[in-house]
Amino acid sequence: MTRLEVACFNYKSACSAIELGAHRIEFASRYLGGGVTPNLSELAQLTQQTHVPVHVLIRCRDGNFVYNHSELLQMQHEIEMAVEAGAAGLVFGCLDANNEINIQANQFLLAAAKHIPCTFHRAFDVLPNYSVGLNQLMDMGFNAVLTSGSNKNAWDGRATLAQLLVQADKKIEVICGGGVRSKHLNEFLETTQTNWIHAACINSLDESIDAQELSQMLFILKQHNNFHEPKNLS
């Protein structure tokens, strides 16, 4: 079964996505900056009123993914607050000056997360070697990686995503995201065979959910899942 994680950049959009039937929310703020840690008091309100899992972006600033000691301490604190507010999962990623995975920094944040599932975000897409990077994430204990297949968007990266899904071999979830739209969703699903799609479904005028686009994506996923559902031959 393929599910849809919707990236929401304000509380109202998250509520709308849940009402429309999103399978999971990634809660963040500042879409134009690539996303940063959202208002965690709003996260608490959100988790108290829904059973839909809410994963939270932990990113203390926009820009690159190379963080100094004080920034890592800030993100550690944000992780602790997010867990207390009811986050079902955490999304973060740290690189070094060579755009390779900073193992020590990521392990520091993973330790703060404790038992909460963690996703390595699209910092993955700037790695010089995505195959090596995926193995490192699995070794560190990340539950998932959000990626567009080392491309500007997931549609262009669909062949790489298919390769990553084979390499992952269900040991880590590969969440395919970045520019996924309803107009090419069917072909994308057939190419990648992914279990998770990530999309913002943003209205071009602001950071609000485009309800029509989200509804269309959910409709296509429902058809896809029904078609691929194992048939009872008894």
Largest sheet: 8 strands, parallel, barrel
- Multimeric organization: single chain
Low-confidence spans: none
**Helix percent band:** 40-55%
Total beta strand runs: 8
CATH architecture, please? Alpha-Beta Barrel
- List the domain count as a whole number: 1
Number of helices: 8
Strand content: 5-15%
Instruction: From the alpha carbons, calculate the radius of gyration and give it in angstroms.
Output: 17 Å
Question: The CATH topology, please?
Answer: TIM Barrel
Shape label: globular
- CATH homologous superfamily caption: Copper homeostasis (CutC) domain
In the CATH scheme, the class would be Alpha Beta
Give a short summary of the structure.
This protein is an alpha/beta fold. It is 40% helix and 15% strand. Strand 3, helix 3 and strand 4 form a beta-alpha-beta unit.
Walk me through the structure.
It is a single chain. The protein is of the alpha/beta class and 234 residues long. The chain has one domain (3-228): Copper homeostasis (CutC) domain (TIM Barrel), CATH 3.20.20. 40% of the residues lie in helices and 15% in strands. The protein has 8 helices and 8 strands. Strands 1-2-3-4-5-6-7-8 form an 8-stranded parallel barrel, surrounded by 6 helices. Helix 3 runs parallel beside helix 4. It starts with a strand and ends in a 6-residue tail after the last helix.
